[in-house]
């Protein structure tokens, strides 16, 4: 028997309401306005992934915390483990956007990178 899931496409502000039908190996998507919605609906029911964002403390910086993100999508089921590892990271200024602050977060093969520059705090 087919399983039907209702999702909201998160790829643009339109937020189309998607109806995804899973029937054996066949996945069909309805309600999408553009092809990105179909791709999102199919991926969400077969291999859901997310970019994870957070902040980590930074020593000697002109701001106290630096925003960070995963360098690529990670499996949705690994978000909690990745967040736990991010919470143990402490950076030191200067930090440049794209600097790797944590390699291979929670064994996902994906690095955690800085999302902005942080200069050294002036004395
Ligand atoms: S299906 Fe297309 S138009 Fe609709 S929310 Fe997704 S990206 Fe936007």
Condensed summary:
It contains 2 helices and 10 strands; from the N terminus they run βββαββββαβββ.
Can you describe what's shown?
This protein is α+β, with helices and mostly antiparallel strands and 123 residues long. The protein is built from two helices and ten strands, in the order βββαββββαβββ. The chain has helices at 35-46, 79-86; strands at 3-8, 17-23, 26-30, 49-50, 53-59, 65-70, 74-75, 91-92, 100-102, 112-114. A five-stranded mixed beta sheet has the order 8-5-6-10-9. The chain has a three-stranded antiparallel beta sheet with strand order 1-2-3, covered by helices on one side. A hairpin with a 2-residue loop joins strand 2 (17-23) and strand 3. The N and C termini lie far apart (68 Å). Residues 9, 11-12, 14-16, 32-34, 36-37 line the site of iron/sulfur cluster.
């Amino acid at each position: 028997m087919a399983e039907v899931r209702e999702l909201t496409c998160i790829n643009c502000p339109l937020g189309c309401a998607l109806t995804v039908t899973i029937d054996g190996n066949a996945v069909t998507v309805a309600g999408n306005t553009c092809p990105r919605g179909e791709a999102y609906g199919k991926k969400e029911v077969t291999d859901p992934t997310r970019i994870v964002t957070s902040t980590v403390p930074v020593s000697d910086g002109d701001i106290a915390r630096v925003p960070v993100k995963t360098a690529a999508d990670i499996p949705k089921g690994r978000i909690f483990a990745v967040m736990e590892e991010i919470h143990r990271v402490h950076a030191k200024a200067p930090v440049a956007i794209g600097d790797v602050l944590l390699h291979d977060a929670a064994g996902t093969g994906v690095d955690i990178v800085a999302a902005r520059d942080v200069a050294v705090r002036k004395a």
